[in-house]
Write a structure and sequence with these properties.
binds adenosine-5'-diphosphate, alpha/beta, about 230 residues, globular, 7 helices, four-stranded antiparallel β-sheet
Length: about 230
């Protein structure tokens, strides 16, 4: 589902944030990406949704080589792939419903289908009763639920999350993890960068550890593995 072959990413300032990364993530896997601050986790994730392009090497998502993707084809990629951020990135002037429906409206899905699908994903994340609220009226955990609903509304094959519990208290973080587990149980591949040691050590999944732009550890059912 996700392949990287010898990927190097050198930023214009000379920092090498990915230094020869090769990886193969199969359909349906749940993968944590861990490592110290500045290790290259976000870069690794950004390469997957083509927020950044590799300096060399190939990134292949669901059979599409991103290096060969034309800019105008990027929206098609984004439909195969949901993204969830630490800071939610909801549109503040749109309601919960509108934030989630947006991705379907841009592809001109039938209005009735949009309504059914939006309510379905909002039910999955437990927010059906707040469809008319605006993001500012929601707690952080609720905003992240909306953002997860938005990420899956297109039924992508892969959901990529960069520190999705980074702004949430521990209890809320566990609730958010339950939702990701449920999405994964339905067959969606999940790749999640995280600093949450307790979660990684409790809900055991494949752990890819990155340091200095390189994969230093890749273990199924591994632990968080860093001190402090
Ligand atoms: P992490 O997510 O593990 O904290 P990042 O991928 O954000 O790591 O960063 C890896 C390295 O690349 C760091 O040294 C960081 O300062 C650098 N970096 C990240 N983004 C950019 C950028 N847009 N331009 C220049 N350097 C960057
Ligand atoms: P948490 O328990 O995660 O800290 P909050 O205390 O922020 O959550 O919110 C508790 C409940 O109150 C949530 O259901 C949220 O939707 C609602 N709420 C919070 N702020 C507002 C607001 N400004 N207007 C309306 N409802 C709000």
């Amino acid at each position: 589902m996700i392949q990287m072959n010898n990927v190097v990413k050198k930023y214009p300032n000379g920092v090498v944030a990915a230094n020869g990364i090769s990886i193969d993530i199969k359909q349906g896997e749940f993968v944590y990406v861990v490592g110290p601050s500045g290790a290259g986790k976000s870069t690794f994730i950004k390469l997957m949704y083509r927020e950044e392009k590799p300096t060399s090497g190939d990134v292949i998502i669901a059979g599409t080589n991103l290096s060969k993707l034309k800019n105008r084809q990027v929206p098609f990629l984004r439909r195969q792939l949901g993204v969830v951020f630490q800071d939610f990135k909801l549109l503040p002037r749109l309601t919960v419903y509108e934030n989630v429906a947006f991705a379907l409206e841009v592809i001109e899905e039938h209005p009735k289908k949009i309504r059914n699908r939006v309510m379905e994903v909002l039910e999955l994340v437990g927010l059906k009763h707040k469809v008319r609220m605006f993001p500012s009226e929601l707690s952080g955990g609720e905003q992240q639920r909306v953002s997860i609903a938005r990420s899956i509304v297109n039924t992508p094959k892969v959901v990529i999350a960069d520190e999705p519990t980074g702004n949430l208290d521990p209890e809320t973080s566990w609730e958010i993890m339950n939702i990701f587990e449920e999405i994964n149980a339905r067959g969606t591949t999940i790749v999640m960068a995280t600093h949450n040691r307790e979660i990684v050590n409790t809900i055991r999944k494949r752990v890819i550890a990155i340091e200095g732009g390189m994969i230093v550890r890749d273990i199924f059912g591994g632990d968080y593995g860093y001190e402090g």
